[in-house]
Amino acid sequence: MTRDTPISLSRRTLLAGLGTAGVAAIGAGLGTAAFLSDGETARVDLVAGALDLTVDWEERYVDGSGDEAAVVRPLGDGDAPGPGEFVWPFGEDRRVVTDLARFADATAVEASPDANDDGRRDATPDAPCDVYADVPSGLSSDLRTRGTVGGHRTESGDPLLDLPDVKPGDSGSLTLSYHLCGNPGYVWMQGELLGDDENGIVDSEMGAHGEDGTAAGELADELLVTVWDDDGDGVPGDDEPLIVSGALSSVAALLNTGHGIPFGGGAVTDLTGVVAVGDGGGTLTLAAESPTPGYPTCGDRGLLRALDVAAVDLSAGTYETPVGDVTVTAVQPGVDGVASVDVTAAFPMRAVVVAGEEAANVYESADGATSGSGLSAPDPPDGDPGTIRRIAVCYAGEPADGTATDRSCFAADSGGYVGIGWWLPRSVGNAAQSDSVAFDVGFYAEQCRHKDGAGAPTEPTDTGGANAPA
Question: What is the pTM assigned to this prediction?
């Protein structure tokens, strides 16, 4: 994960000679000459600057087992977290964490640096650039958690997320801290999907909704990922901007576009983020395959998710998203809940998923639409109006352009935190059994001097290159 930018100046010695001056005395066949000379040497040292990125991390796995259950309670309709509590935001289950410190201990898997091997990241040292890791060499560092924490064992060289038995309903988070060492620089977040494998189809997968029987697995489209601007605690807060959210396949494609997602260079991580693409002049119409069984995701259509709201949280109002506000202008009640919604967005919406009890309607627009009205879930067989259980607003995105006019440099020896949350929805059921995914996530940096933040072509280095895995 180190990006070295060499300057082609070596050490040189500059020699300065003052020459000679001759004086001649001529007379009567006699000649004398006195030669006056002097020499001086001035030494000039030019040393190339360095640019280096180091990282540290902390990983959590949330599956409802062990000590975790003692500090988590369900959040009922109309309930609200109490003082010092927060809602764990990943997954369909509405859960309140009553004690962050105990929850962090109960869900810890591994970290670096972690001198006592308890799965928690050590306090930030005075000189992080001397302690934190280059990657991939840092995956084998003695500073990384070694041994078993919370039933999960970390071996030298293992990937950061190395979970062999993830089940629907499980979730987790990975907090990455990056440190820019040496010169001031621009920083991007990058990623790439490396594998999405079926690994055979077990009996219970056959016939499951979403299982297409091909060699490619379903896990990359079903595993949902959120990236946010973290303050270091590994939990998204109200004041910590959401950067991008969607299926792993869609988020990885975005991170692998150009140089990835540019960071802003402010006092916090301040990713300049993602922009929605499309002309916005289209109309949302019901997709031909609607209603669709289960709860289709934005990732099923190769799109990113701007908003995902359960019916118990849905009301008329404006919701902030990474690419602009979504306003719910009307909510019409059904038999036992919400039946239809009107939405207006500040960006082109490519699809809106409106899920009911057992199926969903998908409204789509090839060029993007900025509004839609009367969006409803499928009517159930009894003929009553369909009750909405969840809605999702989907968009097509690309990394924002980063230039000198709208992007500032990170100061030398500075850095920030990025949070990555993930969860496997319960609605996946059996479709992803035995499937596996592999992906890289990392950072790329280049010096600010003589650059405009638009990014130069990436080049591999001996320490991992632009897409080195984290």
Answer: 0.76
